[in-house]
């Protein structure tokens, strides 16, 4: 039989102790402020323009047409030297230098040399894209347009149609980070109680072990959930589907509470909580990184439990997904939460014994 | 005749191959102070852990206030108070917060933390964080915490070890007050003087077994030797010691000879200490 009086007394005690631990009190407040700051420092709009320059004694009509296309910023440079310097200085992602008499040379069946300059920090795949662009251009200039029609069909939601600003891509990662900070806080709280012997004093009172776990679970979940919710509130993450986002965060908070139990069962003191915790933090941050930098990781990221929290936050906040769209992620997060809580409680029981 | 507050029957606990507590049995009456004495590793702490529900006996059973501790652990724990040997207070909380926390866990209504702190002389620092307390103050707070539920049985593990004389005296005073109130006190200690002064009976535990259990007076009568210690002036004026057993048939003659042949400067009787008795029974020192 669970006693509400005992549980509420323990929760009040844990919250008091949490905020009297200077390290975690500061981390908690600073964490939310810093994460919100990072969010607002990132660009609010997605940069989807192809920005490159060209030097051509005579601009071919095909290129002139391209300059008017949406999503393409094409500038003309007066000389190949100035083109090269502009790309090197980071003004353009790429620069194309067309030789004099190119159109005539192609018509005569010669192979004129076109120089492509790319900036050093450009991803290799983008370099290839510009190369293909130049090759396609040569066909068009030679009066031999590609003899095929490309029809594009988007399978699933058209994510490209709704460009996501970098700050919003960052949001799932920040939400996961805030949740994980509480893993460290709760694990540290439990470890310090074991280390100082105060748990022994509790165990010779009428308090029962399930009441202790329930109180710790409520404390950990509440702290993690409130902070993540505050972060989402100040970053505008609750504008779309607030109830759904709060549900995702609540399940995520329960999951990290289970992880905190597991962490506390292996850690001996605060330093070892931080040691093990950082490892956990790196692993569980990967799904958020994958959203921030698409193509960074492959499908194996689905085995990382935080993937389902990050994925649900991303789809709801950035694409307006609904309950049905993220039901799978919700179910997986719930499953991981139950699993980690069960494993964590079993491991902690062994430690208490 | 008073009822038994604690009855241990063949209690046994092993850590792997080591038998820490080996089929011990004893009873403590309500309102009695039992001194539980033994050297380090004798099995004192394991016994206390079994009696307070922290460890489950592997053999035998213990009843406290008529309740089996292994089966009705929480009912028993609601009626006992435990003061641990190591300080295990919430150091980042105040003394009042520490006491109120435990009072709520015990479900004590109308709890007056200030009055309890006054009993142990801490009412002036009631709102200070425990981390700012001296060792003696922390120990007094540990005693106060063990009393929040007005326990019928009080377990005290080395309550005065390493304390200044004032703190130790304050704690002894509280122990005697608790006995006056009717509480049973199970006092684990290394301090022979303390046990002699406070305990109605003492139990010696050695290598997991109880080797003697009686009142200090009876133990001294049974195992100790009474003696006279005399200081006499030697021919060159230096003081020398002479010892005469009071339990020998020729004691009277020996005393007469002493006064006839020596210049007695001081003379006093001395009875055996509990330390002496423990040594005579086990061949080991207590501390």
Give a written overview of the molecule.
The complex is a heterodimer of chains A (about 350) and B (about 290). With about 350 residues, chain A is mostly helical. Chain A has 2 domains: about 5-45 and about 165-350, no CATH class; about 50-155, abc type-2 transporter like fold (3-Layer(aba) Sandwich). Helix content of chain A is about 65%, strand content about 5%. Chain A is built from 13 helices and 4 strands. Chain A has helices spanning about 5-20, 20-40, 60-65, 80-90, 100-105, 125-140, 165-195, 200-205, 210-235, 240-265, 270-290, 305-320, 325-350, and strands at about 50-55, 70-75, 95, 115-120. In chain A, β1 (about 50-55), α3 (about 60-65) and β2 (about 70-75) form a beta-alpha-beta unit. The two termini of chain A are about 20 Å apart. With about 290 residues, chain B is α/β, with parallel strands linked by helices. Chain B has 2 domains: about 30-40 and about 75-220, Rossmann fold, CATH 3.40.50.300; about 225-270. Chain B has helices at about 45-50, 75, 95-105, 115-120, 135-145, 165-180, 190-200, 215-225, 250-260, 275-280, and strands at about 5-15, 20-30, 35, 60-65, 65-70, 80-85, 155, 185-190, 200-205, 210-215, 225-235, 240-245, 265-270. Chain B is globular and about 70 Å long. The mean pLDDT of chain B is about 90. Classes of the chains: A mainly alpha (about 350), B alpha/beta (about 290). The interface of A and B includes residues 16, 201, 205 and 207 of A.
Write the layout of secondary structure elements.
The complex is a heterodimer of chains A (353) and B (287).
Chain A: H1 4-20, H2 22-41, E1 50-55, H3 61-67, E2 72-76, H4 80-88, E3 94-97, H5 102-107, E4 115-118, H6 124-141, H7 166-196, H8 198-203, H9 209-234, H10 242-266, H11 270-292, H12 306-319, H13 327-352
Parallel strand pairs in A: 1-2, 1-3
Antiparallel strand pairs in A: 3-4
Helix pairs in contact in A: 1-9, 2-7, 2-9, 7-9, 7-10, 7-11, 7-12, 9-10, 10-12, 10-13, 11-12, 12-13
Chain B: E1 4-15, E2 18-29, E3 33-37, H1 44-51, E4 59-64, E5 67-68, H2 73-77, E6 80-83, H3 95-106, H4 113-119, H5 135-146, E7 153-157, H6 165-181, E8 184-189, H7 192-198, E9 201-206, E10 209-214, H8 216-223, E11 227-233, E12 239-245, H9 251-261, E13 263-270, H10 274-282
Parallel strand pairs in B: 3-8, 3-9, 6-7, 7-8
Antiparallel strand pairs in B: 1-2, 1-4, 4-5, 9-10, 11-12, 11-13
């Amino acid at each position: 039989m669970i006693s509400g009086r005992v549980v509420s007394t323990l929760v009040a005690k844990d919250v008091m102790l949490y905020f009297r631990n200077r390290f975690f009190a500061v981390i908690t407040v600073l964490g939310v402020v810093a994460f919100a700051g990072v969010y607002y420092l990132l660009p609010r709009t997605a940069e989807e323009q192809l920005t490159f320059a060209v030097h051509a004694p005579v601009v071919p009509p095909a290129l002139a047409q391209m300059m008017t296309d949406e999503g393409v910023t094409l500038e003309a440079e007066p000389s190949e030297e100035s083109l090269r310097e502009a790309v090197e200085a980071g003004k353009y992602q790429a620069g194309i230098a067309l030789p004099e008499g190119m159109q005539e040379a192609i018509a005569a069946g010669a192979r004129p040399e076109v120089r492509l300059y790319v900036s050093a920090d450009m991803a290799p795949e983008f370099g290839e894209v510009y190369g293909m662009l130049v090759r396609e251009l040569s066909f068009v200039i030679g009066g031999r347009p590609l003899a095929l029609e490309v029809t594009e069909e988007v399978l699933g939601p058209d994510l490209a149609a709704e460009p996501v600003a970098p700050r919003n891509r960052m949001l799932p990662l920040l939400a996961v980070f805030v949740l994980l900070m509480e893993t460290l806080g709760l694990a540290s709280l439990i470890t310090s109680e074991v280390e100082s012997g105060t748990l022994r004093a509790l165990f010779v009172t009428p308090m029962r072990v399930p009441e202790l776990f329930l109180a710790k679970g409520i404390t950990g979940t509440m702290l993690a959930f409130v902070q993540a919710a505050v972060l989402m509130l100040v970053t505008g993450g609750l504008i779309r589907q607030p109830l759904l986002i709060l549900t995702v965060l609540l399940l995520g908070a329960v999951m990290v509470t289970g992880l905190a139990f597991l962490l506390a069962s292996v850690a001996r003191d605060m330093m070892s909580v931080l040691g093990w915790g950082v490892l956990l933090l790196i692993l569980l941050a990967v799904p958020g990184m994958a959203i921030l930098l698409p193509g960074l990781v492959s499908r194996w990221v689905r085995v990382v439990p935080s993937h389902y929290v990050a994925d649900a936050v991303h789809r709801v906040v950035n694409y307006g997904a609904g309950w049905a769209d993220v039901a799978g992620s919700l179910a997986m997060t719930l499953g991981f939460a139950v699993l980690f809580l069960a494993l964590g409680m079993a491991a902690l029981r062994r430690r208490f014994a | 005749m008073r009822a038994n507050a604690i009855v241990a029957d063949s209690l046994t606990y092993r850590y792997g191959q080591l038998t820490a507590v080996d089929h011990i049995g004893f009873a403590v009456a309500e309102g009695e102070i039992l001194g539980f004495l033994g050297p380090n590793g004798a099995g004192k702490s394991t016994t206390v852990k079994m009696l307070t529900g922290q460890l489950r006996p592997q053999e035998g059973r213990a009843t406290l206030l008529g309740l089996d501790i292994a089966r009705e652990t929480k009912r028993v724990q609601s009626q006992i108070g435990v003061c641990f040997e190591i300080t295990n207070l919430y150091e980042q909380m105040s003394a009042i917060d520490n006491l109120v926390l435990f009072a709520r866990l015990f479900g004590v209504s109308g709890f007056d933390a200030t009055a309890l702190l006054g009993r142990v002389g801490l009412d002036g620092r009631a709102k200070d964080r425990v981390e700012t307390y001296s060792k003696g103050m922390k120990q007094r707070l540990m005693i106060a915490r063990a009393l929040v539920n007005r326990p019928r049985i009080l377990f005290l593990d080395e309550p005065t070890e390493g304390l200044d004389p004032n703190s130790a005296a304050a704690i002894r005073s509280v122990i005697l007050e608790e006995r006056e109130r009717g509480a049973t006190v199970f006092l684990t200690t290394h301090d022979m003087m303390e046990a002699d002064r406070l305990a109605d009976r003492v139990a010696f535990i050695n290598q997991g077994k109880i080797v003697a259990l009686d009142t200090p007076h009876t133990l001294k009568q049974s195992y100790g030797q009474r003696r006279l210690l005399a200081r006499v002036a030697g021919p060159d004026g230096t003081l020398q010691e002479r010892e005469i057993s009071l339990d020998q048939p020729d004691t009277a003659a020996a005393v007469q000879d002493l006064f006839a042949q020596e210049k007695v400067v001081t003379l006093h009787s001395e009875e055996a200490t509990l330390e002496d008795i423990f040594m005579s029974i086990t061949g080991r020192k207590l501390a």
